[in-house]
Amino acid sequence: VKVKIPFGNKYLDAIFSVPKKKLSYGVILTHGAGGDMNFPHLVSLATYLASRGILCLRFTCKGLNIAYRTKAYKTVVEYLKLSEDYKLAGVFLAGRSMGSRAAVSVARQLTQDDDDDFIQGLVCLSYPLHRPKLQSKLRDEDLLFIRCPVLFVSGSADEMCEKQLLEGVASKMKAPKQIHWIDKANHGMAVKGRTEDDVMEEINTQVFSWLRENIEQEHK
């Protein structure tokens, strides 16, 4: 279902992947610095999750300014929260690369308020912890302040997220966290000798089982 979400004096293009049998939880997905919501990995994940009962809303927001991207993401969260068509008990924020930075930033802002438990967790695909070859400047500040559960899915050969550095940051985080490493994958999740579909299957099943675990936890 295509929608246009009001954002300032313009609109954000977005698409709902709606499950036949509805769970009361959803996932918001957005892309990295390049591309848009039709990036193949996002389409694959949204389709996979919707076929298993989890509503997915993916959206496009162009621009390389992280504050702007965060503002847009926050607008989408509020839109879904107030949606009459899809009444959800909670939502997981997800993004790829720069999109995951925006998701983390929104989670930090919105979960400071203890009364708001709409945001259930975060899924960070290829989180860009640092620029290539610039490991001395880590983008870890927001990660250290968030409190909701986080799943990182990263390539062990990601030039923007050195394995040891992410594990070091994760060890300092207060939030419950899990890291799933895609062996030998780069920042774009490409692995020599494996097809894109094969890698996506690994990512999709991992994300779904983590979401299901957290949703079940919520119901205990």
UniProtKB/TrEMBL annotation:
Gene3D superfamilies: alpha/beta hydrolase. InterPro entries: AB_hydrolase_fold, KANL3/Tex30_Abhydrolase, NSL3/Tex30. Residues 27-207 form the KANL3/Tex30 alpha/beta hydrolase-like domain. It comes from the Eukaryota. Pfam families: Abhydrolase_11 (PF20408). This is TEX30 protein. It comes from Anseranas semipalmata (Magpie goose). The gene is Tex30.
